Amino acid sequence: MSCMEFDVIIGVGGVVINYQHVVNFVLDIRGIVNDDDALQEQIESVLAESNMQQFLVVEVPEKEGSKVLLTPYNQVDGARYLDPNTRTVFGFDHLRRTASEPQEAEGEEADSERPHEELRGLLQKELDSYVEGHYPEGAVSVFCHEGSVVSCIVSNRFSPNNYWNGSWRAVWSFNPETKQLNGSTKVRVHYFEDGNVQLDTQSDFAVDVPEPLDPAGAARRVAKLIRGYEAEFQQGINDGYRQLADKTFKGLRRALPVTCSKVDWENIANYKLGGEIVKAEQ
């Protein structure tokens, strides 16, 4: 079985999956492949890609209370990642989902030596406050990446016992040189009781951030723009649901029988069907 085939299975077309789903998947594939060495060799890279796509939230080892998202923007090399807030580089086992071997970031790995680190730290504080107030189970990490300040937001809700999972993910990239903010927000919800119903929607944004742009002012303005665009996106989803209820679903069934009149249940015998039921009872 090729790595591409593994990717097709675990991605499930973008369905939100929790860790128990991953465990079950690996155990099932292990029984099919019957070769632990081949499984270990190929599954690690697939799980790494999946975890980074879903912005997995990880506790930084030996840094109590510190968490960071696993993303392509803080991947140092292979299975090592950077937490810019604690300036820690650590290894991560994507199969067991365990972090280990923390080291102090040095040289190019240390965000403190990158341009725009001051802006990154200020924006992290602004977005920490925003996420805490708007996402019950949310997390945000801000990184310096290729000359831009990239903010990643995630909020997952898993309820497999009630047959649904959901995820909100957003990436916002601000370039201090061009003063442009680009963002992409995605929502995926999967309901799978006696069926398979999915919501998969995405919206992209691009806006110029007006001057003045000192680090503190830029952080406040970028955070304000993110709040505004995400609120607009959320409102659009709410409006879509109302339209489904008011128009789309109503178009799937008749509001009235073909007679265009409500059934008078007190005089059911007046109907042909009612008459047949009365005769059958006599």
Determine the mean pLDDT. Answer: 81
Strand neighbour order, sheet with most strands:
7-8-9-10-11
Q: How does the overall form come out from the CA principal axes?
A: flat
Low-confidence stretches: 1-14
How much β-strand is present in the residues?
A: 25-35%
Structural class: alpha+beta
Order of helices and strands: HHHEEEEEEHEEEEEHH
Number of strands: 11
Helix content: 25-40%
Q: Termini separation (Å)?
A: 69 Å
Largest sheet: 5 strands, antiparallel
Give the count of helical stretches.
Answer: 6
- Which value, in Å, is the CA radius of gyration? 26 Å
What's this entry about, in short?
With 282 residues, the protein is of the alpha+beta class.
Keyphrases for this structure?
4-stranded antiparallel beta sheet, alpha+beta, 282 residues, single chain, disordered N terminus, 5-stranded antiparallel beta sheet, 6 helices
Kindly describe this structure.
With 282 residues, the protein is an alpha+beta fold. Helices cover 37% and strands 29% of the residues. The chain has a 5-stranded antiparallel sheet. A 4-stranded antiparallel sheet has the order 3-4-5-6, with no helix packed on it. Strands 1-2 form a two-stranded antiparallel ribbon. α1 crosses α3, α2 runs antiparallel to α3 and α4 (117-134) packs parallel to α5 (215-248). Mean pLDDT is 81; it is low at 1-14.
